[in-house]
Amino acid sequence: MATNSSENIDQLNEVIVAMVPFPDYSHLNQLFILGCFIASHNILVHFLCLADRNQDLKLRVQGDLRASNIHFHDILVPSSLAGIEDAGHGLPSIVTFIRSLIDPIQRTCIDLSTNAKRLVIIHDSIMMDHVRDVHSYPNVKSYMFHSISAFARYSLLRQSIDHIFDDDDDHEEMIEKMQYEFPLLESSVAPFAAVLLRKEHEWKLNSGEIMNSCRELEGKYLDLLANAKDKPWLAVGPLHMLLESHDSSNKSHHECLEFLDKQDVNSVILVSFGTTTTFSQEQVSELALGLEQSNHKFIWVLREGDKKMENEKFEEKDGKIELPEGFEERTKGRGMVVRNWAPQLEILGHPSTGGFLSHCGWNSCIEIISMGVPLATWPIQYDQPYNAIQVINVLKIGTSVKSWARREELVTTSTIEKAVKTLMGTTEGEEMRQRAMELSNKIKSSDSHGGLARKEMESFISYITR
Q1: 71 alpha-carbon distance from chain centroid
Q2: How distant, in Å, are the alpha carbons of 91, 127, 272, 303, 324 from that of 338?
Q3: CB neighbours of 305 closer than 8 A, spacing ≥ 6?
Q4: Which residues neighbour 334 within 8 Å (Cβ) at sequence distance 6 or greater?
Q5: What 3-state DSSP class applies to 352?
Q6: Coil, helix or strand for 453?
Q7: Residue 5: which residues within 8 A CB-CB, separation 6 or more?
Q8: Which of 137, 147, 264, 406 would you call most buried, defined as having the most Cβ atoms within 10 angstroms of its Cβ?
Q9: Helices marked H in 203-279 — which ranges?
Q10: Packing angle, helices 193-202 and 150-160, rounded to 10
């Protein structure tokens, strides 16, 4: 049931929008930002997600004027499946859990369709089946949202569907040069992903497809994807840049920023692997020693997701991840370990930040690139190895710490030390930084008033309201 009764919605609304995210934070954050942007155009937005996710999002928009146009609907999990989303990483549990949301989401969408002349559903590509039956209603149209990069989707589709694209000599030449280093579909995504990719491509019920990207960054691949499917293909990113005009007066005073204020320009490397990455004790120790021996300044965001492998016994003291003895004392003043949330966008935008050692999740990649920061790439799973390829081989703004072909190997202290030194202390690294800054300037110019990216975002509002 919805937390906001639909009875309170004006029956004469021309358009209302329902956002149906995949409940993983890396997915739903993108759709939530897009939802806030739509709401800022005085359009009612309904966000359909799990109660705990909705509660977190409500806290994020407290005091934001856009929040008055956002209605949160708590999608209840059947009691027989309650808690299954946290039962582990087994595929059957995840699939069963996601399927259990089909009925409550469809019922909520059908209810919403009675409250406006048009209901526009924007759903994650994983959530196709959750809105299938709603398309039979004449006042409903939908858009499919892809949370990965255009380059990653293009690379995955090339491998999952024969002859979907015309010959691409540049892409073929890159794969030939990389040989076994180029990630294969079966090694980078779950077994069911190839089936899902084909299903997404063949899906005929939606009115268009949306990506968190922009023409300056991925114009070629956005065009290739659009040509392969006879529907509008809209780039509405970088989505995080939509937040800046609203949040500029609410900058944090995090200790990371105080640390950066005392450092030289481009002298600090940020190290972060997101919230779900798991590392062994041995790998955490190698990473720590690699940062120490590089002799470069760093901020290392070391959160619970980095703590341990699924079945590994791991000693903890006071709930903290164990680092090599004396590490923090030896690097005091030069390095900083953050064990909870850190303001990543503000760190990336700080002039003292000169590099990022990253797992290459798309959210992080597009933030990093738009800020003009080069990368040391360490892909872990899913689309990340393709993002790493794009950063290094297409955009040429990064260096590899760990290639996908060696994903099962331990990354040693010396490898980490070498990558950090390359990015932060060599002519090669400085050239990457210059290319990253040039690309950043193009993206920011495009996102400014009257720019191509901003026009495409505004065109999207026209698409859904006309």
Answers
A1: 23
A2: 32, 35, 10, 8, 16
A3: 273, 274, 275, 276, 277, 278
A4: 295, 296, 297, 298
A5: coil
A6: helix
A7: none
A8: 147
A9: 215-227, 241-247, 255-261
A10: 100
pLDDT of the chain, 466 residues: tens digit per residue = 344 444 444 444 689 999 999 988 888 999 999 999 999 888 999 999 999 899 998 888 776 766 788 999 999 876 655 554 444 444 446 778 888 899 999 999 999 998 888 999 999 999 999 999 998 899 999 999 999 999 999 988 888 887 788 777 787 888 877 767 788 777 666 666 777 888 888 888 888 899 999 999 999 999 889 888 877 888 998 998 876 544 444 556 789 999 999 999 999 999 999 777 778 889 999 999 999 999 999 999 987 654 433 333 334 444 467 899 999 999 999 999 998 889 999 999 999 999 999 999 999 999 999 999 999 999 998 899 999 999 999 999 999 999 988 888 999 999 999 999 999 999 999 999 999 999 999 999 988 877 888 888 888 888 888 7
What CA–CA distance (Å, rounded) separates 253 from 155? Answer: 40
- Which residue in 343, 348, 385 sits closest to 369, CA to CA? 348
The pTM (predicted TM-score) of the whole model is 0.87
Strand ranges inside 346-404, DSSP E: 353-358, 375-377, 398-400
In the three-class reduction of DSSP (H, G, I as helix; E, B as strand; rest coil), residue 14 is classed as strand
Q: How many CA atoms lie within 13 A of 385 on its CB side?
A: 22
CA–CA separation, 131 and 142 (whole Å) = 9
Cα–Cα distance between 426 and 433 in angstroms, integer? 11
d(CA 28, CA 152): 19
Q: Identify the bridge partners of residue 20 per DSSP, sorted by sequence position.
A: 123
Integer-rounded Cα Rg, in Å, for the chain is 22
What's the CA gap between 36 and 236, in Å, rounded?
Answer: 13
For tokens 């040069």, the residue is 177
Residue 41 contacts residue 247 (beta carbons within 8 Å): no
| Neighbour tally for 93: CB within 10 Å | 15
Residues with Cβ within 8 Å of 204's Cβ and at least 6 positions away in sequence, in order, are none
Length of the chain: 466
Q: How far apart are CA 268 and CA 356, in angstroms?
A: 9
| Cα atoms in the 13 Å half-sphere on the side-chain side of 349 | 14
Question: Which string of DSSP letters, residue by residue, matches 64-83?
Answer: -GGGGGEEEEEPPPPGGGTT
116-124/335-338 β-pairing? unpaired
Q: Record the tokens describing residue 381, joined without a space.
A: 């799973």
